[in-house]
Design brief:
The protein is mainly α and 118 residues long. The protein has a domain of 52 residues. The chain contains 4 helices and 2 strands, in the order ααβαβα. A two-stranded antiparallel ribbon has the order 1-2.
Length: 118
């Protein structure tokens, strides 16, 4: 019976892995160009210089290294370097401190888990 259960679970898992991730019906189809603004709060500021996003700023300041990160982990990851790494840790420490003040307990779980825990 245990063997049958394991086989059934494996079969179910295999079938679930190929199911598409279908978005809700009210999600607009398409890319960024089709995004709709739902709500704006306050006025959008204007600047007398070209605006750069956090990715461009981080690259220009040597804080992000996407090329090395992609070799290690694939696309869409960043490696934080120098002040970028220090800023990341400062933010982590700040929020840990704030959460501790609110009574939360910090937990560091094992890096590896058994399949049944997923």
């Amino acid at each position: 019976m245990e063997v049958e259960l394991k086989n059934a679970e494996a079969e179910l898992k295999a079938k679930m892995e190929v199911l598409p991730n279908i978005p809700e019906e009210d999600v607009v189809a398409g890319g960024k160009e089709n995004n709709e603004v739902i709500k704006m709060v306050g006025e959008k500021p204007t600047f007398d210089f070209p605006i750069k996003d956090h990715v461009e700023l981080g690259k220009n300041l040597g804080m992000f290294d996407f090329e090395t990160a992609s070799k290690i982990s694939g696309t869409n990851f960043a490696m934080y370097r120098g002040m970028g790494a220090r800023l990341e840790w400062a933010l982590v420490n700040f929020f840990i401190s704030e959460h501790n003040k609110s009574g939360y307990e910090m937990v560091i779980p094992p890096n590896l888990v058994i399949e049944q825990s997923a």
